[in-house]
């Protein structure tokens, strides 16, 4: 793909993203936002904390022009488009460069404080069944643009940089994909990674205080405002009627989408506003769930999703995620048999993975790492009357999400019998101090607290001491295979592998 200098000037001017354009008539053969990705013919976008010294390599490696904020034009002789919003400019130029691949994809965008990845995999699996494998995925865990393993990429962000996103979308379209499911973080809206992109269906799962701090959102209001940008960019919206701040959410949604394009879902008997579709568990156990979906009112009857579904993932929050995925996929063409099939087989790596042991009860490996998700998980386990003791192994990362620590302690205090406070990516902080902060919020004297900063030893002890009717939750690290310590990714076996190994050693 090739863009001319005139194309770029016009694209940026049309979006009001241009301060000045260079005298230049070259052809752009490649785009990059990192100096290490520059090849001859590259247009480089200079954003974030780009260091002027990178420019030496950029010129040496053959960049022919840059899009940069003010002041950069004086640092280089390279032709420069000056913009006061380079990330937005990058999105607009990237989508054009890759030929607007979004126009050939039915696109579902998913946001929410919790459940984005789980819901994305559910929608992906339903659509795989509905479209005979013509669906792409962009999630925190993986990006999938085709069915062969070479088109499966490890993700580095929940929502990729726009340049990567549109390149992957192009690849998906070229691979014959007709649908795409993607997670859209509030940070992606804030950092303009999805600037100018519209979704056929936007799913809004829930919102609770999170992601507030350095490098994220300064306040909850800022977090909420950026999450609600999904409403401004979606043709239709699937909204959780049980979400906190529902009044604010529906008010904002209604400003952008007519009522017959807003689909509300909720839990049967929850004290929530009227929804179009409800779910209710008909059989829930520690390993999975069977649930019923009921449509209410005239609008909902177009959905045709009433009936009973089996989900191979436990937790009523996952039934809620599943109903959101069902409605959204219905709106882009999936039918009920595809939903039955997709939900029966869906697995989300590191989310609610269940290990049933012979003598040490049920073990969950789960990514829950803030108050809302740990509380929801422990509450779900508690609902099961056969559970004896509930043990949680948990820590919190260093230099990140500091505000989560008291929330983790509170959730443990409300729901656990035993807790092992341990390490979770301590980075440059002392994990013992992080554990102190979590422990300060465990006010329930009934909770037995152990401190074991070696995560592998903590998991070993927790499993060893659990009886056959107990549950052990290994929280917050999912299938991560490293601990971030002092800026280094230190190899770590992963919680699931440790649990399986300990269980087989104990049974032997
Ligand atoms: C605040 C934030 O979102 N920052 C992201 C942003 O940083 P940035 O633009 O300042 O980039 P930087 O790493 O400081 O580097 C500046 C520029 O120099 C370039 N560079 C860098 C090194 C070099 O040798 N040469 C070079 O050209 C980089 O490519 C970049 O364009 O762009 C970088 C990639 O270009 C991201 O890695 C980085 O995410 C950081 C790591 C991050 O932690 N982001 C989190 C907050 C985030 O985005 N999270 C959400 C999920 C939240 C949720 O769960 O809901 C997400 O969508 O992932
Ligand atoms: N709807 C929900 N409400 C509350 N908790 C949930 C919900 N869905 C999932 N969870 C819990 O949150 C954890 C993280 O889920 P998931 O990875 O799907 O969310 P996410 O929004 O992608 O998270 P993150 O932004 O932290 O990557 C799960 O392992 C589960 O414990």
Automatic annotation (TrEMBL):
Q: Which GO terms describe its biological process?
A: cell division; cell wall organization; peptidoglycan biosynthetic process; regulation of cell shape
Q: Which residues carry this modification: N6-carboxylysine?
A: 227
Q: Is Electron transport among this UniProt entry's keywords? A: no
Cofactor(s) the protein requires to work: Mg(2+)
Q: State the organism named in the record.
A: Weissella hellenica
Role summary:
Catalyzes the addition of an amino acid to the nucleotide precursor UDP-N-acetylmuramoyl-L-alanyl-D-glutamate (UMAG) in the biosynthesis of bacterial cell-wall peptidoglycan.
The subcellular localization recorded is:
Cytoplasm
Domain Mur ligase C-terminal: start-end pairs? 350-478
Name the UniProt record assigns to this protein: UDP-N-acetylmuramyl-tripeptide synthetase
Q: Name one GO molecular function term.
A: acid-amino acid ligase activity
Q: What is its EC number?
A: 6.3.2.-
Query: Where does this protein hold ATP?
Result: 112-118
In what pathway does it function? Cell wall biogenesis; peptidoglycan biosynthesis
Keywords assigned by UniProt, alphabetized: ATP-binding, Cell cycle, Cell division, Cell shape, Cell wall biogenesis/degradation, Cytoplasm, Ligase, Magnesium, Nucleotide-binding, Peptidoglycan synthesis
Q: Which PANTHER family match?
A: MUR LIGASE FAMILY MEMBER (PTHR23135), UDP-N-ACETYLMURAMOYL-L-ALANYL-D-GLUTAMATE--2,6-DIAMINOPIMELATE LIGASE MURE HOMOLOG, CHLOROPLASTIC (PTHR23135:SF4)
The entry's cellular-component GO terms read:
cytoplasm
Q: Look at the named UniProt entry and state the broad enzyme category this protein falls under.
A: ligase
